[in-house]
Structures are given as C-alpha cells and as structure tokens.
Specification:
Length: 233
Amino acid sequence: MTEQTRPPSHPERAPQDTRILFIDTETGGLEAERHHTLTVGWALVEGVRITSTGERLISRSEYLFEQRALDRNGLDLAHLRAAGVSPLEAYQALMDVARPVTADLGSANENLPRFGGFNTPFDRGFIAALSREAASGTIHKVAGTPGEPGVPPKKSPSMPPLTLHPGADVDMLPVTTFLRRAGLIKAENSRLDSIYLALTGRPLEGAHTALADAVATAEIYLDLSARVRVTPR
C-alpha cells in the first residue's frame, strides 16, 4: 500500500480548478471479463500539481490471468496474495480519492475529478469489472492459508459505481500519439515509457507498475499543459 502527497508541478500554468484522477491498472490479461485486475494505482492532479498518489495490490485466493501478462508486468501472484488487499478495499480507496472537494462549490459533478489515463477505455473496463467484483458479496483475502479448505469468504456490502466527472476522459495516449506522428514529440514509439523519456529526458523508473505509470501519465499531462499557453476568449 503506497500513498503520498506530491510537491507542486509547473505552477505557472493550467487551470486552478482542474481535477483529474489518473488511473492505471496492471492486469492478468487484456480482457476485463476474462482476466483480473492485479494492481491499481492513481495520481490526483488538482490545478497545476499532483496532490496525492496511491496504489493497491489486490489479493485473491485464485487469479484469472495469462502468463504473458505476468511476464510483461513482472508481478508475482504469491506476493500479491500475501501483501494485497481485497477487491472491495482497493475499490474503496479509489472512491475515497475521487470524492468531490466540497459540496459548496458549484454542482456536485463539477467538483468531481475527470477520469484520466493512458488508454482510458482499457482501464475503465477493468475498473468497472473491479466494481462488480467488489459488489459481488465476497472478499477474496481471508484468514488462514490461501486456498485452505474450510475458510469461508467474508461478506462485503454492495458497492456503488465509481463516480467521476461526466465530461470527456483525459486520455493521454491519443494526444501523445498525435503529437508524435506530427513530429512534435521525438519519441521512438507511442508507449508510455518512450513518451515519458522524450518529454522529461528521464527513463520511467518502475514502468509497468500501476503507481509509476499513473504518476508518469499525470506528469506528461502537466508537462504538456505547461507548454501550451491558453489565451482567454
């Protein structure tokens, strides 16, 4: 479990009321209906800075996965099972960070963060599947040895869907792909680590971990925002 508050980034630009929750999932495969979410990470952008970050590893007695997915993200299922939290707890952590800043400023929707990411349709699908799993009435991490017979699952309360701003997602994949094809980002390819290196001059440490990828996507957003001068109409 990792959470922290971040220092200001690019304080000279970007709307002060911007709130974007950049989410990344590491999964057992490419299909949310067939594979499990293994970890979820996030970085909350408020105005011109990343204000908080977090990550949850997800523990289950059994996982639905393809080996090639684990080969890519380097996750160890035994570690996840021992160190992770239940799908319900992971989903609840996302709901907590996505709450409105205050009920006194404008409408409730306006105070909700937008969904951000690097290929948001992919992560949205797995977050939706995680919400259904959280609401299914079972918590997969239970007392006793994993897989031990006779250890019943705990019951969980029903879980409402993750509510974010109804506006368009902030998906940095199509944005950076366009800029790369236009020759404005000198990246070797359109992968997150390549885009991050091209923009920051630094390799993406911890690539293919949910926390590192979520933070990197938020930093890419802030970097590009700082390069664009918005002129009021």
